[in-house]
Design brief:
16% strand; six-stranded antiparallel β-sheet; alpha+beta
Length: 867
């Protein structure tokens, strides 16, 4: 079977016809399609091209096309140029380049053109059963006069007489009464342009059989032409089944396009189906696509599907959330509506079940976070009502960390504020009752104590709050009594040796009164009572008085008395009187201290700086060595780290509220000289010149057992209970009221702490890496409690045994001891560690008998504990 084509294009005409520049280009474009081995499949030798032929050459070429052909050949005649319709006999003529019109009447000179009748006759004479005529010219529909339009199966009459055989088809760019148009600015005529486009793109293969038949290409070209030129009406005329003649093949798509089409067949909920995945993997190998290219194609195909699926998921999810927010549950009616929505969105039961489980989990998590905020707000508000700006700022940060919406926060705070306000009023009522009671009698009798207990029960107050109020008031009362007692002692001693008092004596007493903060009314009443008591005693004879006073003055001068009571001479400037909190022990005054704190941003830049104060006592260890113990006032805090904190680990969760009683903790980690003073030696690896210890550097290479033994020996030596801090006490002391990763703020720098500055935590610059310990307190800024080196320098042992999380942890600040795990907890990081390991919440574990040059400790002294 041969495929033979005659392609005719006439662009140049005489003065009787307008030139058609696109006709020659039409022929050339048609030739490219037909000669393409994977599209037309025509051999070059079987394609005859005529460009601007004369009438005689045109007729001969047409006759040659249909002569001496086999019945199974495919013959194609294509013409692009002028055609003229003879209205007298309704016959169409194809114009050659030498076609002219009669000079006078302007009618066609028929001898200079080729008639449709001539072509019909040649077609009829041919033995070929597959004949295709394509006419892109005006009135081209007139060429097929007598042939039925596609779909009309009546082939009787003149068609049967003229053609008698099957497989003839005529494609025309217009009807028998229409002009065919060129489009300005286009290389090809309208009909031919879309004809070739449909073949090249393969879009005309409507039945997807890999071939483009004459009816398919005509349908494609006609549709496109009508969209552009609605007045044009391309037509197709056939005999027998000619309209199904296969004209060309479809250009095989590239492997990527084949893969793309297959991917579209296996889309399931925005992803490839399980079985489809197996098929696509094999197809990918067959097409020799690399994984990257295949994945790109899949993403391009699936992304719109994924977006649509996600949109449906989000719509269902939002509906479910809104329903729960409004009714707090899913009613039967709401469940039916959700099922209707599921069907409308074409979601599966598995999809909606996952959505609902996720939302329920999120809501549960959100409710737990609300409860955390509620507890924190309640505790904070009870401790300070109304809230201070600092607490309000801290609660705002907690809201951000927990990602709670303002509406829920307002609801919680309004409810709790109303409750706390009423509770606070009851506390104030009890406070006034207690103040009145101890003014009337102190200490309180059992009857008065029972009456106050009944009032506490009536008001519904907790024992903790009542104890706090009573201790606060009692402390003030005891402090006042203590001050009055000191003054009374000093006055009584002086009055024994000189009465009335000399000006010097009165001057010294005035100085003591000022230091103790006593008013004149209190002093006057006290002195009057002592003088009255002295005068009421039986007086010896003048001689006896003179003799006694002379003898005593020889033994004790006034200066000695003043020095003995602690307010005379040089000693006066150094006396600090404080309330004695170690009950039952020899007096140990608390010394006020002042220190500076800073807050930094995530770049490590200082944004705020403040001066603060605290109290401490100095524990004498002997040989002039002391241990500074800072008072840490009890309170509540959120222990652990939020999910948003960089560097956090799972053993820092869940966050939980802990109530910590008052205690004392070392201002610094225990130093080498302190350790040696108690233990007799130091194990530290960091020594100074000639192997001498660094006295002010923290002791290291101490095991947990070593630290416990130190506390035991220290307690025995001084008569007070010393121990390691619990984890809760350590973190409470480290944070000092902050909620940020470090008590300094969002990060730390090597200007603030001793750690490995080769690493950064947030946006700060890298810093120094000294690779050894530094002297305690060598950094100028402490935390808000007055503690130094809580981040870095050395790890610090805690009492607690190791636990992988805080689930089940005590909330009273005590150590969490579990003998099943012998490992002990370390906090604070060291000179060797990265900054993330030095965070307030970071936890680490180590065997209790292991020693390392990065591990030290600091000690705690409990309030009111003696041995």
């Amino acid at each position: 079977m041969a495929k033979v084509a005659l392609l005719i294009g006439v662009s140049k005409y005489g003065t009787d016809f307008t030139p058609l520049p696109s006709a020659i280009r039409d022929v050339e474009a048609m030739y490219d399609v037909l000669v393409h081995p994977h599209i037309g499949g025509f051999a070059e030798s079987n394609i005859h091209i005529l460009k601007d032929p004369e009438q005689k050459s045109l007729a001969i070429a047409i006759e040659n096309l249909f002569s001496s052909r086999d019945k199974d050949d495919l013959l194609l005649l294509y013409f692009s140029g002028h055609s003229i319709k003879d209205y007298l006999n309704n016959t169409l003529y194809l114009a050659a380049c030498d076609t002219i019109k009669q000079p006078k009447k302007g009618e066609l000179m028929r001898a200079t053109a080729v008639s449709a009748k001539f072509i019909h006759e040649r077609m009829s004479e041919s033995r070929c059963r597959h004949q295709v005529i394509i006419l892109d010219s005006c009135f081209s529909g007139a060429f097929a006069t007598g042939l039925p339009i596609k779909g009309n199966d009546d082939i009787r009459g003149d068609i049967e007489q003229q053609f008698g055989a099957e497989g003839r088809v005529v494609l025309t760019s217009s009807s028998s009464t229409q002009y065919s148009f060129e489009q300005e600015g286009e290389d090809l005529s309208i009909y031919t342009r879309f004809f070739i486009e449909g073949i090249k793109s393969g879009e005309a293969d409507f039945d997807q059989d890999g071939y483009i038949s004459t009816d398919e290409i005509h349908e494609y070209a006609s549709r496109k032409v009508r969209q552009l030129r609605p007045e044009m009406n391309p037509e197709i005329y056939v005999a027998r089944q000619g309209y199904k003649i296969r004209l060309t093949q479809v250009l095989p798509p590239p492997p990527g396009e084949v893969y793309r089409r297959e991917v579209m067949q296996y889309v399931d909920r925005g992803e490839t189906s399980i079985i489809g995945r197996i098929i696509l993997n094999r197809l990918r190998d067959t097409l020799r696509l690399d994984n990257f290219e295949a994945q790109q194609i899949e993403d391009e195909v699936l992304e719109p599907c994924r977006k649509e699926f996600r949109k449906k998921i989000d719509e269902y999810k939002q509906g479910f959330i809104d329903q729960l927010r409004r009714d707090k549950t899913i009613t039967p009616k709401a469940r039916q509506e959700l099922q209707n929505l599921q069907q409308y969105l074409r979601l599966r039961n598995e999809d909606t079940r996952l959505i609902e489980d996720e939302v329920n989990a999120q809501l549960k998590d959100y409710q737990e976070k609300l409860e955390i905020y509620k507890q924190d707000f309640t505790i904070t508000l009870r401790q300070e009502y109304p809230l201070t700006p600092a607490s309000r700022e801290r609660l705002g940060e907690l809201q951000k960390q927990l990602k709670l919406v303002d509406e829920d926060i307002v609801m919680i705070e309004d409810t709790i504020t109303a409750e706390v306000k009423a509770y606070h009023q009851k506390l104030q009522e009890y406070k006034q009752l207690f103040i009145t009671s101890i003014k009337q009698e102190y200490p309180l009798t059992q009857e008065k104590r029972a009456a106050l207990y009944q009032e506490r029960e009536r008001l519904g107050l907790t024992s903790e709050d009542v104890t706090r109020i009573e201790e606060e008031i009692t402390t003030e009362r005891e402090t006042q009594y203590h001050k009055l007692g000191e003054y009374k002692q000093a006055f009584s001693e002086l009055i024994k040796f000189e009465h009335p008092l000399s000006d010097d004596g009165r001057k010294e007493l005035k100085r003591l009164q000022k230091i103790l903060g006593l008013n004149d009314e209190e002093i006057s009443a006290l002195e009057a009572s002592i003088i009255s008591s002295l005068e009421e005693r039986t007086e010896p004879t003048n001689q006896q008085q003179t003799s006694t006073k002379s003898t005593i003055r020889q033994k004790i001068t006034r200066r000695k008395v003043l020095k003995w009571v602690g307010f005379g001479g040089v000693g006066l400037g150094t006396v600090v009187v404080a309330h004695e909190i170690f009950k039952g022990q020899s007096p140990t005054p608390l010394i006020p201290i002042q220190f500076a704190t800073v807050t930094v941003d995530n770049k490590g830049d200082i944004v705020t700086q403040a001066n603060k104060q605290a109290k401490l006592f100095k524990q004498d260890l002997g040989n002039g060595i002391t241990l500074d113990m800072v008072e840490i006032i009890g309170g509540s805090f959120n222990m652990g780290s939020p999910p948003s904190e960089t560097g956090r680990t799972q053993n820092e969760e869940p966050m939980h509220i802990v109530n910590v009683p008052t205690f004392f903790i070392g201002k610094f980690a225990v130093t080498q000289e302190q350790y040696k003073q108690i233990m007799g030696t130091t194990p530290s690896g960091f020594k100074g010149e000639k192997g001498v210890i660094e006295p002010k550097h923290p002791v290291e290479q101490v095991s947990w057992n070593d630290a416990v033994e130190f506390c035991k020996k220290l307690s025995q030596k001084v008569g007070r209970k010393y121990r390691l801090p619990s984890e809760a006490e350590w973190e409470y002391a480290c944070r000092a009221g902050t909620t940020t990763p470090f008590h300094f703020g969002d990060t730390i720098t090597t200007e603030l702490a001793n750690y490995n500055g080769d690493f950064t935590y947030a946006s700060e610059l890298k810093g120094k890496n000294p690779q050894h310990t530094t002297e305690v307190g060598s950094f100028r800024f402490s935390n808000a409690f007055g503690l130094y080196d809580m981040h870095g320098n050395v790890w610090e042992w805690c009492q607690d045994t190791w636990h992988d999380s805080y689930k089940g942890a005590p909330n009273d600040g005590s150590a969490w001891i579990n003998n099943e795990d012998q490992r002990r907890c370390l906090r604070g990081g060291s000179w060797f560690n990265k900054p993330k390991d030095c965070r307030s919440a970071f936890r680490f574990s180590y065997s209790p008998d292991n020693r390392y040059n990065r591990i030290g400790f600091r000690v705690v002294c409990e309030v009111g504990r003696i041995l």
